Inverse folding.
């Protein structure tokens, strides 16, 4: 036996951990969908559940590998800033001085104020200035973070789900079905995501739900291909043969044996993909086909303020830009650490 | 090789046909071009006449059949806006985009590979970590933002480089290119850098991963056991091995670079296909949109093909198998 | 002396008759002159025609200059006009023909080479205006003997016409204008050189390069960086900085374009209106008045438009033909309290929900303006959403009547009130060419009658009165919500000057060097 | 004078899970033309010993103690540059997996010529000549043509021959061969073994043959060292050690090899499994699996004792009782 | 002794057919052939109840393919496989499926043959529950018994595969197979990946199980020593064909086929002292285009013209059968 193990060590959970993390997963999914459905804000409680759920999941993922994960200062910085940004996004309602999505709370007379200004009546200070609608940039960033994050997480999860199904199915079924599915995947992949999304958004019109759909469409194929790759190499492993030899039915082998082994490699990919999705969403919003203009995401905030960069009203675009950079970079950094932590090939 | 060619051809035909269908109906869903094209002063009657002139009065499937019929003869229609054959129009814009993407690619390799190899070599040292952190920022920065910042810094504040436009062009092989004139090159630097930044980070990471992986391989150890210098090991043994995946990825990325040129070209007013596409989307110039997408796909196919060939040339394992078949 | 100009949009062709659209028309004025010119305020001025006058009810006589030659040296005469009008309906693949302007011509009668009589079926007061919209090309240069042409609105027989492509590659770009087309490179720029034999005052520039810099930021950056000498439409937010800069000059002038919100007067239930049980509240004049006075135009002008706009009380700014004089029909003043009261009176004390459709890349700060209006409406209790999309999508949806309220703009091409009234508010009637852009389906037969009468009145004074009357009728009915008139700015390096134009054109031969 | 003299070599890996003492006090020496068999089970530190000699231990591993005298020079004192000029020149190494040791994207010619030119200022042509000669010697038919080939065009056995040829290129004084035949089929293995045997005889090159297969050692090596958990537990002339093992581990190992006429019998089995190298017991590392264990063994690690001519043993309770054993 | 398992002319070909594109290319003149590997070529032998049959041969000679066909993991191209008299060639029939469960396989790589994400208890218990050999309530006990049988502590039930050593994993693999109460075990290189000392443990385990559970084995290995130790009869394969079948002692004392002789000759042996290694010339030919006639003839020191021409038949003398022209009328 070689010193380097070839299979990734599984996420090793005690029974209690497993149950907790499953519950956390359900909680996260539920709260996320509530967040996304956009009908009002989910109550504080459920958002707290979401946060706790996320932390539990993360802890479960890293159980026993904290030391390795937190090697070097960048891991601390990235985790801390990610955590901070996520908390800010989740509790945007409570934390932001203004609801930037509520037009009644905006007053164009407060428009384009530099950081530190106060409202007409002095009731509120705009720490990061305002945009031309009188929208508090700080509040805009907090809400925008939430939009950017939830849109990209939702799109990533859904795309991953579709990709997993298609990927596993084609790897398992083989033959013609596989060929056809993979051709479709190739086709989708040969088309740059930004163009597809651009066309889709032009056709659909704006809207949170629409951008999520567009982002799903541009991403699913990527997962499908990755999963198929993993599934193919997993089906070649002898434990699948063993299961067949034991007379287990196909569905049981696929769901009980194959599936659980195909998903973990996706965790790292999907982290990075969330970051990419945020950037893609912001590019789309920047090009004017993203989220609704009254509910700006970070990208839209940047786009709106973009025209003011040269004129010295840098804050409208600069601060959202910094926030975007921070969230994307910290997700990427955490993803990087995750990869290094979970990748068995670098294990020593 | 023949099989490979034929297979590629078959796949390409499939992709093209699928693309035609998807694109036609996709584009068809977006608005009515006449609403944009016609002068606001025009009377409803004139609107109708214009619709008829472009054939919009016919049912979708008839339009589609016509489109397919023409497309099979290589005619993707005339631009509504410019009145020129769409393909010709795009071809006239294409050199600008291609040279930009190419320079971007060169930048990203020039920046990415050395950094990546070095980072891989010093993976556990601060140098390696610093490069990796830098690369994360590299690909976390949105394209449009970078472009604007570069303009602000290099064109407006420092005035080192021109901000937008194309500059002097030289006619080479019937294409007018900037890359061969000093003036033109100046104009290209900022947009190419913007375009290259993301890819450079990607290449850095790929090169680092590849280097790390390669350094763990027995053949590197064996090369060391032969008494080779570290430089030779990195430059010959490691580099040649990692160039294979890098070239593959980069080739594919060249495609997405051409696509992402949409954003960059908008920011830098670079007269390439991407800008033409955005303009065509705003004016709903359907034939141009369709032709753009079709041509992009063809470029993709050509790029993929070239990548495969290069891959074959680089990787003897594939090359020899290719000879055998 | 060279001049480099950064343009906000790019002409699609150098063919003067290919596409009736602003950028193309702007370019063609440099190379292909029309019979009649327009000045900064869109008043008609002599150009290739020295003078014109109505001859009876349905005829106009144009007296042409006799000292004009085309750039290939051939003389200009009335046959060239006939040839040009003949070519216009048949330009292949044109997305938008100039027949809009020539459609009313029933016959062209050449009295002598420099006298032309234009016939129409009905009284046609706008005929001279129509002759300011298209450029004249040479018959001779295209190998056609002008005198032999038999004019007919249906077609002039088998004549040789230049191909659009021939204009683009410069081979047949032969006009009478102050500039010659040197090169036309899509995306990269257009080069013009001075016409050495121009009949009028020679252009002040040896060579002009027109660069398409369609995004705002880069455009202004290019000016600041010194890459161009003048730009059109500098972004409003940069004006302050440019003004403060000694090396820059900014000029601005009111344009003929009004930004308005059109309301759905027809559909029931109206799309995207909520909280009214299917009723269309916009049919109620009290609601329309409430919506109109709930908007604080001055705030929008000051905050969103950076002061570079003028609050609007009707559809054409004061001073233009058919518009009221300053102060006669002022913008409705902002009165949120009264607006709330009106809503209650109309039976909507709780307000209702509405969505404003708006393009986000068509007019200056279009989506921002819509948002500001939404804010203001929200304050009187009307829950307002914004549906912003790119112009192409927006116009198609608007034309499919998908909005109950939408923001758009109208530039009066002819420079008179008939233009917006006819397009936006006249009852839709395709046969008469009325209400083409009346996507709120407003209908007011009394106003229609006044308007139609005005359209047939050749006498200017009478027509102006009729137009004013029609406009006041519509405004009193709160048929549409005018927001503001766009003011067009130009920014240039110090040392240049340009007189702002209502038609928003940037014409290189009018750009002057100053000390 | 011996070619190689390793004294108390210690190579440790400083991992997240703790310090792995992969090699912990290994000593042996080797004369010219001698073949030393280094045997032991997986993870016992054989390869690391080999790499330590060439100073090629990967991070996080480090040689932390002991001396490696190569022809009178302590390798630890050499600069990196000097060490490099020894590698592949005076000391060569062959690896286990012939699929992995040759760079897949470089021609055999490149890989051989660079090995010559790294150490000798000769022309490409001269280097190539030498390569052809050496390839012929390891039994590669028509070597001149094969030089242009890539590794994957060779079979496993052929590749291993190429690797051996590369090791022989500069006529080294010492070759460290790390399980070079383990991945090969029986018939191919015996071809290689025959080749190596002949070469060693002809050239006088000293050879360290690392393997876990006692049978191979029996047929090939002059002397053998048995490793367990980073230490040599027994060493001596091959025949002596294999016929009369002194250490219970050696005895167990021999007993657990099936098939010399003991058909169907139960094999002697060493209970338990190989120890975790990061958490070795205090005393004798083999104590937990040893049937002769007592308190002493658990308390304290035994030292190497000489138990006869050239025979060393690291055990408190050797099987063959000898005078002077502790 | 009635045969428990009977193979009659079982073959397995791996064909790579040309697809449409390739056929087109061939028509255009490309040098393309359908490739066909005869991984197993008309193999016939029997295994009696309670017997251990060793299957030896060099890498790529088709041992695993044969084993996998018997285990029902690979369809058979030709021939038939009977188990206790019942034709189980077609794995889909209900009868065959039931019988198949009696045949279990132990794999080579103890890591990849265990699902890394399942706990030992589930790995062992799953199939037993599914087939109703035990139920959810008592499965824990069932697993504990099996663990005990393979010599592991019951605490292992709660572990994951990566928390165990190679030998322990291999025991789990064995326990998993035993869970469905098999009568016939196919061990495909089941000990090759283990250390010598652990190998011995597992070999002993196999023998204990054979005795306790009355198991029959097909024991695939390339290690002659192991086969000699454990098997009653040995089947020798070369390049897809069976070249010799004989009782172990007979085979090791008097190998008849030149290949078997060479093989036995070349195995390094303990106790033989310093050996001078002798070699068979040449390499193992590619199974893609095997030599005509007797596959071994290019490497055979005794090959004659006939060997190049004719495929040798298997000639049985007593319980020793050989496929070699030397034993069938000479090589001329
Ligand atoms: N890079 C490394 N990091 C951490 N530990 C290592 C590393 N390389 C080797 N080791 C440890 O050093 C010990 C000795 O390893 P070595 O490779 O020398 O064993 P070996 O005897 O050659 O085994 P095999 O027969 O499997 O090749 C092992 O326990 C291994 O875990
Ligand atoms: N799925 C497959 N497709 C094509 N060829 C195959 C396939 N499986 C096996 N073969 C070929 O069949 C032959 C026999 O393979 P098999 O795995 O049975 O050999 P083996 O004797 O078990 O070898 P080893 O000792 O290496 O395990 C080989 O040449 C192999 O290349
Ligand atoms: Mg080793
Ligand atoms: Mg096998």
């Amino acid at each position: 036996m070689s010193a380097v193990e070839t299979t990734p060590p599984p996420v090793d959970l005690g029974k209690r951990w497993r149950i907790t993390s499953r519950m956390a997963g359900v909680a996260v999914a539920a709260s996320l969908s509530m967040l996304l459905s956009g009908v009002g804000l989910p109550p504080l409680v459920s958002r707290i559940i979401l946060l706790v759920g996320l932390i539990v999941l993360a802890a479960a993922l890293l159980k026993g590998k904290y030391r390795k994960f937190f090697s070097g200062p960048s891991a601390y910085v990235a985790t801390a800033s990610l955590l901070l940004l996520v908390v800010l996004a989740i509790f945007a309602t409570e934390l932001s001085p203004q609801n930037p999505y509520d037009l009644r709370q905006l007053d164009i007379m407060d428009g384009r104020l530099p950081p530190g200004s106060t409202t007409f009546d002095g009731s509120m200070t705009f720490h990061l200035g305002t945009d031309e609608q009188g929208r508090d940039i700080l509040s805009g960033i907090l809400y925008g973070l939430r939009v950017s994050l939830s849109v990209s997480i939702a799109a990533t999860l859904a795309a991953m789900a579709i990709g997993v199904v298609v990927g596993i199915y084609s790897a398992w079924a083989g033959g013609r079905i596989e060929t056809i599915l993979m051709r479709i995947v190739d086709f989708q992949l040969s088309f740059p995501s930004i163009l597809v999304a651009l066309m889709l958004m032009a056709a659909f019109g704006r809207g949170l739900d629409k951008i999520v759909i567009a982002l799903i469409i541009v991403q699913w194929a990527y997962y499908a291909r990755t999963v198929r790759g993993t599934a193919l190499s997993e089906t070649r492993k002898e434990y699948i043969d063993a299961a067949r030899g034991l007379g287990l039915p196909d569905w049981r082998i696929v769901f009980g044996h194959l599936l659980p082994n195909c998903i973990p490699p996706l965790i790292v990919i999907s982290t990075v993909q969330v970051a990419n999705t945020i950037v893609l969403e912001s590019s789309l919003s920047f090009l004017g086909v993203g989220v609704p203009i009254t509910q700006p995401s970070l990208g839209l905030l940047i786009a709106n303020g973009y025209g003011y960069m040269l004129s010295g009203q840098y804050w409208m675009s600069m601060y959202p830009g910094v926030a975007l950079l921070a969230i994307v970079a910290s997700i990427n950094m955490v993803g990087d650490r995750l990869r290094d932590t979970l990748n068995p090939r670098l294990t020593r | 090789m023949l099989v490979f060619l034929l297979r590629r051809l078959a796949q390409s035909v499939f992709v093209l046909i699928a693309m035609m269908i998807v694109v036609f109906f996709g584009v068809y869903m977006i608005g009515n071009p006449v609403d944009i094209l016609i002068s606001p002063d025009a009377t409803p009657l004139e609107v109708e006449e214009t619709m008829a002139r472009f054939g919009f009065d016919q049912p979708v499937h008839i339009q589609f059949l016509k489109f397919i019929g023409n497309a099979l003869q290589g005619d993707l229609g005339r631009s509504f806006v410019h009145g020129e054959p769409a393909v010709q129009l795009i071809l006239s814009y294409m050199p600008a985009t291609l040279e930009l993407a190419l320079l971007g690619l060169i930048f990203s390799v020039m920046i990415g590979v050395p950094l990546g190899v070095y980072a891989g070599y010093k993976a556990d040292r601060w140098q390696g970590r610093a490069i990796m952190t830098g690369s994360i920022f590299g690909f976390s920065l949105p394209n449009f933002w970078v472009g604007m910042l570069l303009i602000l810094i290099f064109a407006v504040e420092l005035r080192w480089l021109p901000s937008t436009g194309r500059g002097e062009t030289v006619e080479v092989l019937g294409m007018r290119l900037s890359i061969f004139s000093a003036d033109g090159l100046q104009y290209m630097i900022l947009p190419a850098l913007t375009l290259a930044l993301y890819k450079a980070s990607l290449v850095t990471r790929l090169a680092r991963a590849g280097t790390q992986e390669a350094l763990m391989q027995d053949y590197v150890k064996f090369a060391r056991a032969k008494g080779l210098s570290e430089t030779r090991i990195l430059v010959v043994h490691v580099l040649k091995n990692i160039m294979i995946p890098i070239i593959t990825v980069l080739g594919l990325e060249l495609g997405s670079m051409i696509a992402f040129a949409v954003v960059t070209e908008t920011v830098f007013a670079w007269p390439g296909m991407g800008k033409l596409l955005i303009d065509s989307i705003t004016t709903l110039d359907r034939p141009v949109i369709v032709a753009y997408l079709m041509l992009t796909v063809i470029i993709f196919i050509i790029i993929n093909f070239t990548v495969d060939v290069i891959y074959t040339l680089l990787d003897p394992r594939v090359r020899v198998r290719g000879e055998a078949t | 002396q060279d001049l480099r100009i950064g343009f906000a949009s790019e002409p699609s062709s150098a063919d003067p008759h290919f596409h009736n659209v602003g950028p193309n028309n702007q370019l063609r004025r440099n190379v292909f002159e029309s019979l009649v010119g327009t000045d900064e305020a869109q008043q008609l001025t002599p150009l290739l025609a020295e003078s014109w006058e109505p001859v009876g009810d349905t005829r106009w006589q144009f007296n042409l200059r006799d000292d004009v030659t085309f750039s290939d040296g051939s003389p200009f005469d009335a046959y060239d006009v006939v040839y040009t009008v003949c070519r216009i309906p048949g330009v292949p693949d044109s997305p938008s023909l100039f027949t809009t302007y020539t459609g009313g011509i029933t016959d062209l009668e050449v009295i002598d080479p420099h006298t032309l009589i234009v016939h129409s079926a009905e009284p046609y007061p706008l005929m001279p205006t129509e002759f300011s919209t298209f450029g004249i090309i040479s018959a001779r240069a295209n190998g056609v003997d002008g005198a032999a042409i038999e004019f007919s609105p249906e077609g002039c027989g088998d004549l040789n016409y230049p191909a659009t492509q021939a204009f683009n590659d410069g081979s047949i770009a032969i006009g009478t204008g102050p500039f010659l087309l040197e090169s036309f490179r899509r995306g990269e720029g257009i080069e013009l050189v001075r016409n050495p034999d121009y009949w009028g005052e020679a252009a002040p520039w040896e060579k002009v390069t027109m660069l398409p810099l369609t995004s705002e930021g880069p455009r202004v950056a290019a000016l600041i960086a010194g890459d161009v000498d003048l730009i059109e439409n500098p972004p409003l937010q940069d004006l302050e900085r440019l003004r403060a800069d000694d090396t820059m000059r900014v000029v601005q002038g009111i344009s003929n374009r009004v930004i308005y919100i059109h309301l759905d007067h027809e559909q029931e239930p109206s799309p995207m209106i909520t909280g009214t049980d299917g009723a269309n509240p916009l049919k109620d004049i009290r609601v329309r008045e409430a919506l109109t006075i709930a908007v604080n135009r001055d705030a929008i002008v000051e905050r969103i438009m950076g002061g570079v706009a003028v609050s609007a009380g009707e559809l054409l700014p004061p001073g233009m033909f058919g518009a009221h004089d300053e102060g006669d029909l002022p913008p409705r003043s902002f009165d949120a309290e009264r607006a709330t009261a009106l809503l209650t009176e109309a039976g909507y004390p709780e307000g209702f929900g509405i969505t404003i459709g708006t393009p986000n890349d068509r007019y200056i700060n279009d989506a921002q303006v819509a948002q500001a209006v939404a804010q203001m409406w929200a304050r009187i209790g009307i829950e307002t959403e914004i549906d912003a999309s790119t112009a192409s999508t927006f116009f198609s949806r608007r034309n499919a009547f998908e909005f109950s309220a939408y923001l758009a703009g109208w530039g009066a091409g002819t420079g008179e009130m008939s233009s917006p009234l006819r397009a936006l508010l006249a009852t839709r009637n395709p046969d008469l060419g009325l209400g083409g852009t009346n996507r709120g389906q407003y209908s007011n037969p009394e106003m229609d009658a006044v308007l139609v009468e005005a359209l047939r009145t050749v006498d200017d004074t009478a027509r102006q009165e009729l137009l004013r009357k029609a406009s006041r009728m519509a405004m009193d009915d709160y048929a549409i919500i005018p927001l503001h008139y766009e003011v067009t700015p130009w920014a240039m390096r110090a040392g240049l000057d340009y007189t702002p134009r209502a038609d928003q054109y940037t014409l290189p031969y009018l750009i002057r060097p100053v000390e | 004078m011996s070619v190689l003299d390793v004294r108390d070599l210690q190579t440790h890996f400083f991992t997240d899970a703790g310090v792995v003492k992969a090699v912990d006090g290994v000593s042996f020496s080797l004369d010219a033309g001698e073949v030393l068999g280094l045997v032991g089970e997986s993870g016992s530190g054989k390869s690391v010993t080999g790499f330590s000699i060439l100073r090629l231990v990967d991070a996080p591993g480090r040689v932390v103690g002991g001396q490696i005298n190569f022809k009178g020079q302590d390798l630890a004192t050499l600069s990196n540059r000097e060490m490099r000029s020894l590698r592949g020149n005076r000391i060569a190494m062959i690896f286990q997996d012939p699929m992995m040791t040759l760079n897949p994207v470089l021609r055999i010619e490149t890989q051989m010529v660079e090995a010559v030119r790294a150490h000798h200022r000769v022309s490409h042509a001269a280097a190539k000549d030498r390569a052809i000669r050496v390839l012929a010697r390891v039994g590669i038919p028509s070597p001149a043509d094969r030089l242009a080939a890539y590794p994957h065009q060779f079979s496993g056995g052929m590749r291993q021959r190429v690797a051996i040829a590369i090791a022989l290129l500069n006529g080294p004084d010492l070759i460290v061969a790390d399980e070079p035949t383990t991945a090969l089929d029986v018939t191919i293995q015996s071809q290689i073994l025959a080749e190596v045997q002949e070469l060693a005889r002809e050239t006088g090159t000293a050879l360290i043959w690392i393997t876990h297969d006692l049978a191979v050692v029996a047929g090939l090596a002059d002397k053998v060292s048995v490793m367990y958990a980073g230490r040599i537990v027994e060493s001596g002339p091959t025949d002596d050690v294999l016929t009369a093992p002194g250490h219970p581990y050696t005895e167990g190992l021999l007993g657990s090899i099936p098939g010399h006429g003991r058909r169907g019998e139960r094999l002697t089995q060493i209970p338990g499994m190989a120890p975790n190298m990061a958490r070795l017991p205090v005393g004798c590392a083999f104590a937990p699996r040893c049937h002769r264990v007592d308190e002493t063994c658990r308390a304290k690690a035994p030292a190497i004792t000489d138990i006869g001519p050239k025979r060393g043993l690291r055990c408190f309770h050797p099987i063959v009782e000898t005078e002077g054993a502790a | 002794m009635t045969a428990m398992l009977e193979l009659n002319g079982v073959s397995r070909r791996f064909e790579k057919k040309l697809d449409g594109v390739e056929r087109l290319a061939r028509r255009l003149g490309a040098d393309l052939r359908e490739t066909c590997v005869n991984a197993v070529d008309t193999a016939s032998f029997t295994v009696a109840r309670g017997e251990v049959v060793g299957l030896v041969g060099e890498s790529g000679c088709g041992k695993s393919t044969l084993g996998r066909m018997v285990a029902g993991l690979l369809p058979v191209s030709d021939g038939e496989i009977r188990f206790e008299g019942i034709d189980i060639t077609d794995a889909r029939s209900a009868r065959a499926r039931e019988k198949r469960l009696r045949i279990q396989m132990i794999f080579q790589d103890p890591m990849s043959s265990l699902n890394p994400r399942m706990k030992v208890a589930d790995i062992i218990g799953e199939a037993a529950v599914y087939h109703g050999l035990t139920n959810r309530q008592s499965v824990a006990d069932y697993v504990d018994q099996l663990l005990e049988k393979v010599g592991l502590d019951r605490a292992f039930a709660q572990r994951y595969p990566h928390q165990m050593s190679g030998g322990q994993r291999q025991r789990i693999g064995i326990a998993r197979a035993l869970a469905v109460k098999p009568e016939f075990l196919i061990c495909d290189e089941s000990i090759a990946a283990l250390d010598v000392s652990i190998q011995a443990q597992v070999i002993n385990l196999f023998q204990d199980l054979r005795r306790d559970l009355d198991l029959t084995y097909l024991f695939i290995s390339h290690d002659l020593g192991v086969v000699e130790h454990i098997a009653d009869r040995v089947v020798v394969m070369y390049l897809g064909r069976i070249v010799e079948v004989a009782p172990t002692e007979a085979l090791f004392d008097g190998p008849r086929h030149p290949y078997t002789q060479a093989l036995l000759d070349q195995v390094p042996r303990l106790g033989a002292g310093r050996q001078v290694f002798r070699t068979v010339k040449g390499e193992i030919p590619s199974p893609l285009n095997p030599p005509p006639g007797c596959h071994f003839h290019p490497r055979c020191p005794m090959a004659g013209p006939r060997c190049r021409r004719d495929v040798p038949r298997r000639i049985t003398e007593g319980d020793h059968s050989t496929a070699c022209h030397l034993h069938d009328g000479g090589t001329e």
